[in-house]
Design brief:
Porin; 6 helices; alpha+beta
């Protein structure tokens, strides 16, 4: 399963609104009480984008929750590459429904085999102690160039995707890795992210969309620390597993700051972590992802 940049070749004179296309893909068909099916977004690399399957699996699990509970944590393993032209079957196991928490396991299946296995926990809204890491001081998103500005003059399929097809606007505070390595090799990265238009939907949808969006950049701190970029010749990347904790309500159509880091890379694997803040400094989520990252002669 790829954790790299999702994308499709623009086609036709007027490309469809990418946010609408994404939302339609996440709108699963219900085949039974605990079984759902869904399709996939077109991709340049021919493989299903991992963040898409994460979001779909979260939504499938959430649709089996009968109480007023939202996902607060999930752990997923990417097991096999997904085929774009084959529907994905989501089978949900109701592991437990307690007084305050519910647990679900979702298998995303193609050709009778799982491509993703995800466990998620849901909780009712409850009072408790409150504290959080403070957000760092960073330039406002309006002061940071967007990926669209950087790539608009580049004649390349991935560049054309970001300009016309991406559902999210990304703004790297210290410069992106789309075209070249960072000037300074460090394992810290700051990125502003927001959907390209307002999104109507409940909190379950917005939490699933955050899982979708974060997979685009979770391994970038590993690339930055290693002096690599998305254009590094021979680079091969794939998400292996993903863990996520939602601390508070989130809206992906409002600016979110990703404070990212990479503590380690070894054995062809790298670990990326992130804390996600609302623009007002509220910590809304934490996450971690390990991925396969291979470079010739490394």
């Amino acid at each position: 399963m790829t954790g790299a940049i999702p994308g499709e070749e623009p086609s036709g004179n007027e490309p469809r609104d990418p946010v609408t296309t994404l939302l339609d893909t996440l709108d699963l068909d219900r085949e039974g009480p605990d079984v759902f099916t869904g399709g996939s977004l077109p991709q340049l690399n021919g493989r299903i984008y991992g963040g898409q399957v994460l979001a779909q699996a979260i939504l499938a699990a959430g649709r089996t929750i009968e109480h007023d509970r939202l996902p607060h944590s999930m752990h997923g393993y990417f097991l096999r590459p997904g085929a774009l032209d084959v529907p994905i079957r989501f089978e949900v196991e109701r592991m437990r429904d307690g007084r305050s928490f519910s647990a679900r396991r979702t298998h995303a299946i193609q050709h009778g085999k799982p491509i993703l296995s995800l466990a998620a926990s849901f909780q009712e809204n409850q009072p408790g102690i409150e504290f959080a890491h403070e957000a760092p001081e960073v330039p406002a998103p309006e002061e940071v160039p967007s990926a669209h500005e950087q790539l608009s003059a580049v004649d390349h399929p991935v560049a054309r995707f970001w300009v016309s097809q991406a559902a999210f606007d990304l703004r790297h505070v210290a410069g992106s890795l789309f075209l070249s390595p960072a000037e300074r090799a460090e394992g810290r990265q700051l990125v502003w992210l927001r959907a390209r238009r307002p999104i109507e939907g409940d909190q379950l949808l917005h939490r699933a969309l955050l899982a979708y969006a974060c997979d685009m950049i979770m391994l970038e701190p590993v690339l930055r620390r290693g002096g690599l970029s998305w254009q590094t010749e021979g680079l091969s990347m794939a998400s292996l597993d993903h863990a996520m904790w939602w601390h508070r309500d989130v809206r992906v159509d409002e600016w979110l700051l990703f404070v990212q880091y990479s503590p380690s890379a070894q054995g062809g694997r790298g670990l990326g972590g992130a804390r996600v803040y609302h623009a007002d400094g509220t910590l809304v989520a934490s996450m971690a992802q390990e991925g396969m990252i291979r470079v010739p002669h490394a």
